[in-house]
Amino acid sequence: MGIDLSKKSTVMPGSNGHVGDRAAWLQGGTSECATLPSPLKDPLRLVLLGAPGVGKGTQAELLHKWSGACHLSTGDIFRDAKTLPPSERSPAIESALGFMERGELAPDETVLALVSERLRCLRCPGGFLLDGFPRTVTQAEALEQWLEAQNLPLTGVIDYELSIDKIIERLAGRRVCANCKKVFHVTDQWASPEKCPACGGQLYQREDDHPQAIRVRMEAYHQSTEPLIKFYRQRNLVLTIPAEGTPEEIFHRTADTLALRPTRECKQHKSAT
Predict the structure, then answer these.
(1) How many domains does the chain have?
(2) CATH number of the CATH domain containing 80
């Protein structure tokens, strides 16, 4: 039986509605979160997957508000690191930012070094929502070893799916303000389709939001993610969620699917690869 969401509760039964500052995740090293959630009997420990345009970030925030699990995004680490002086950046962060500036994906070695600086976040008593990690089978194997060493079972791997036509419709309709950098969509209601409703600046379409560029990105995403999905399917961890509809509808779909999941224990999924 699924969770009763008729009242659209924003907190998972048993959670404390904790909203952390994620300092330990964003800054790594010896940084500490200002507050920690109270321990839960069965905290969510999820990996979130989904192609650009499926709304994975929005779902992560909704799941966080509902369950109290911390949203651990590697993208947030990079954005936060850009605001730090070089003297406060670890070698792993410096290396990752270098790859980003060149428009390249950071290799496994760099990503694993980055996450290893933040391993205690995986022990967060409120659980976690991993977003952007793991991206490869090598990274997934490392995560599996880290979690098993701490006897922390992974709840599941949420794979948000949406047709390529729907993704193109979402991404190709985005417009960015050249002045304030805010993002809008052509389906939004504003006075002028060329002027930013916030500051009056010129709106433009990013090069990688053109339909053909989106198709290329989607092909690259599926090629790189297919082995990762196979890895987690062999461990019976994949929960596929259709990403059609409003954010709220997708969230309710996700919450009901999670409510039906069996309780997992560590070291019970030694499948041949």
Answers:
(1) 1
(2) 3.40.50.300
